[in-house]
Amino acid sequence: MSDMWTVPELDPRTYANPVGELATYREYLTNYRLTIELKCQDLDAEQLARRSVPPSTLSLLGLVRHLVGVENHWFHRVLDRHPEDESIYLTPEDRDADFNGAVADDAVVADAFTTWKAEIDRSDRWLDALDESRLGDTVPHRDGTVSVRDVLVHLIEEYARHAGHADLLRECIDGRTGQ
């Protein structure tokens, strides 16, 4: 098996040198989302739920469930201003339920990927309505405010960090490394 994920002509990620700040943020965010998806491609429930090293609960499935919460928190709860809505996969009793609940079960896998795609779709609709001139706008967050720009940069950073985790997790499963 090749360690290449796909031949360059079939790589779904784009490197188009977009024009404008918002377009740049969107391309990076989209590419990191696709990278996470590629790292999970062609794995079964057991492989997706396989933990890195004890006592860590880190797994590819856990990362997907965590990213559901990331998308939901930042786009829906913060940027779209619905802080009262419940977190997805997290509970007051278990703040690590996104990882703890990432078990080798086909229904859990299906739910995680379906929910992640739905959150990405909702996030993208929010971004579609955003005018670049509003990147400096602030929204309430915790005990202060945060700019839209800061949230988008944080999301890119969050995905980039977890794409690195996914590289290592996937390599441990079948030896495939990043491209």
Give structural notes.
By secondary structure, the chain is mostly helical. The chain has helices at residues 21-40, 45-49, 60-79, 97-100, 106-128, 148-174, and strands spanning 138-141, 144-147. It has a single domain, classed as Four Helix Bundle (Hemerythrin (Met), subunit A). The protein has 6 helices and 2 strands, in the order αααααββα. It has a two-stranded antiparallel ribbon. The protein starts with 20 loop residues before the first helix and ends in a 5-residue tail after the last helix.
Q: How many DSSP E strands?
A: 2
Number of domains: 1
The largest pleated sheet is described as: 2 strands, antiparallel
Identify low-pLDDT runs. Answer: none
CATH superfamily: dinb family like domain
What's this entry about, in short?
This protein has helices spanning about 20-40, 45-50, 60-80, 95-100, 105-130, 150-175, and strands at about 140, 145.
What are the key terms here?
179 residues; mainly alpha; 2 strands; globular
Protein topology:
Blueprint: H1 21-40, H2 45-49, H3 60-79, H4 97-100, H5 106-128, E1 138-141, E2 144-147, H6 148-174
Helix pairs in contact: 1-6, 3-5, 3-6
